[in-house]
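cron nightly-structures :: item 1 of 1
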Amino acid sequence: MSSRAEILSNHYKDTFDFTLKLWDQRNRTFIILLLVVGVASLLNIKGSQAHPLLVDAIINYLDISDQNRVDDLRKSFPIGLIHSILLMVILYLMVQLYHRTITITRNYSYLGKMEDEIRKDLGVVGDKISFTREGKFYNDNSPSSTKYIRYTYLIMLGLLIITFLVVRFQSNFSSENVVTIIWDTALGLTILFFYGAYVYVSLKKPTKKEES
């Protein structure tokens, strides 16, 4: 193996290992985002039941025993602030999901082009499949069902996010708190923007291992 081909092969391996770690992080981010949106939706839809449970959990966690403090906390607990914080957490996770997805897509495209260079330096020609795993071989052997799995993920996340935002906005408008309405609307629109960007990237260029 020529020194150039060896350097390219090592770089290829390092890039692949980094992309695989990033892919694992992306999957964890997706699951965490689903859980956070689910919890936030539950707090909105079942607010009258969920809010007292949340307050009780905080009281137990902080070990508050004074009844007057407990009563004050139940009356003045800033549940609106909790909802806004959850919106910010969802936005953060959505940005992370989008960023990692677009980086993974770019890296696999890069790996595919690197394979062509390595094959050329090694003199691999014809139908030999050496150094085609992330490019030609994967594209030629990727099952058609992969796209349906990708659509399922996108629709599942989209339905959760839209349901949460619709219920949240309805709750805000009924409260008539102008500051909260403006703040949550800005956060919600930004979340929808990055979700749209995530959908665009996912549909434009399927990423490897999307079916897993």
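cron nightly-structures :: done
The radius of gyration is 24 Å.
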